[in-house]
Amino acid sequence: MSRSKFFLVVLICSFVWAFVPGYLFQSLTSISWVCWVFSKSVTAQQLGSGMKGLGLGAFTLDWTAVSSFLFSPLISPFFATVNVLVGYVLFIYVVMPTAYWGMNLYNAKTFPIFSSHLFASNGSPYKIADIVNQQFQLDTEAYDKLGRINLSIFFAISYGFNFATIAATITHVGFFYGKEIYHRFRASQQEEPDVHTKLMRKYEDIPAWWFYSVTALSMIVSLILCTVLKDQVQLPWWGFLFACAMAFTFTLPVSIISATTNQTPGLNVITEYVMGLIMPGYPIANVCFKVYGYISMSQAISFLADFKLGHYMKIPPKSMFIVQFVGTVVAGTVNLIVGWWLLGSVENICQDQLLPPNSPWTCPNDRVFFDASVIWGLVGPNRIFGSNGNYIALNWFFLFGAAGPVIVYILHRIFPTHKWILLINIPVLTGATALMPPASTLNFNSWLLYGIIFNFFVFRYRKKWWQRYNYILSAGLDAGAAFMGVLLYFTLTMENRTIKWWGTGGEHCPLASCPTAKGVDLGPDSVCPVF
């Protein structure tokens, strides 16, 4: 079968099947069978829930759930998948049970085991609106009266692993690629071009002023926003320039990790941390700083990846630049328009407690983004991760992360014949769960399963099939599910046409988010028992 025909067959099959978990039988998105067996046990549901727990035995038959956060597992190198697996198992099945059941760390049992929400000390949701004044700044008197913000144990430790990841990225690239970066930079003008570069010489190169013009225009517009709308944006002009400097500094090391592992560490936490220390109490400033520092770097890496693909596919560089420039402008404009439209047209959008089970409008990414703006911007890291907070010990993860690659490097120098040591990638291992939340254990379970099946077993025992069809299969699955998602929205979801039966009632783990500390009562409307 030709690759084109194979792609078409996979696309059609994926398109048709996506209708089942996407509409008819939505519980197939999260098959948490442990919850079905132990329907009255809080502990069992905490262990077995794929959406709100540790996901023991949970899996999905919905491709969008597999690839929605980590992208397709079929395109990830196997050694990177193994690093993700080790980091995931270490965090979810070693650290989490020890911290929650073994140590009750940070009063973990008072709060849900897995949640991105913010809580008061008694386990109730934190009343964020009560600590914000009219200028969208922290009301310190109200905060002192309401008390410290508390995080679920999962959310708290995930921040620690994020600290470790960014520190590990710097030391890993420095020790393993520092010399190569230096030599390549010095030899960049003298090296003989490879075959791809020779073939690309028949096309006219992109004028440097194109890049300079886009950069200058973007920076001028941003500086105007920071100056003219300073009360609304809250970010001073020097904060914007500092964010750009951070993005520029981290683009190279993060690009190297991304290029070699297909896993991209984020700057979201470190940018939030830095700006939170500089300007605590200003949530909008923190969000803007994160966007300029983190998303700028992320977009730069995406831009480079597309150019690399175009280089190998022999696409004219000018065409690649124009397509990406126009695509960015169009996509950004359309996303903004659609976002405002959805906020005004979808009832209870992003309010997961008011939405039906398996609703597509819970906005998990946006919820984490909002909570992060409260943690790092409004309240500030000093009141949470500093001397005035509950989680100061998590700062040690910076040291652990920085030391990890150094230890691996020393082991490699002591045992140079053991090639597998070089496959240990600490930034990927510690950053394996960086997307959780909003990602859940369900997403990781299935991603790891399919990644191991195709990039180990199929690669080893059906290598010719893997070489010919693996990436085509990945593209077909993505395309089919995406087309069905659009069709479902405009034909059924938009018209609020739903069906109700057991198979559309979510994953059926209502007790997974219950606290287990003695005396915690969430009120008469809660399904959680009081211990």
Automatic annotation (TrEMBL):
Recorded topology in the membrane: Multi-pass membrane protein
Signal peptide limits: 1-18
Organism domain of life: Eukaryota
Compartment annotation: Membrane
Single annotated GO MF: oligopeptide transmembrane transporter activity
Predominant location category: membrane
UniProt xrefs under InterPro entries: Oligpept_transpt, OPT
Chain segments annotated as transmembrane: 78-96, 153-177, 209-230, 236-259, 266-285, 321-343, 391-411, 420-436, 442-459, 471-492
GO cellular component, one term: membrane
Coiled-coil stretches noted in the UniProt entry, renumbered to this chain: none
UniProt keywords, alphabetically: Membrane, Peptide transport, Protein transport, Signal, Transmembrane, Transmembrane helix, Transport
GO biological process: protein transport
Family designation: Belongs to the oligopeptide OPT transporter (TC 2.A.67.1) family.
Name used for this protein in its record: Oligopeptide transporter 4
Native species: Aegilops tauschii subsp. strangulata (Goatgrass)
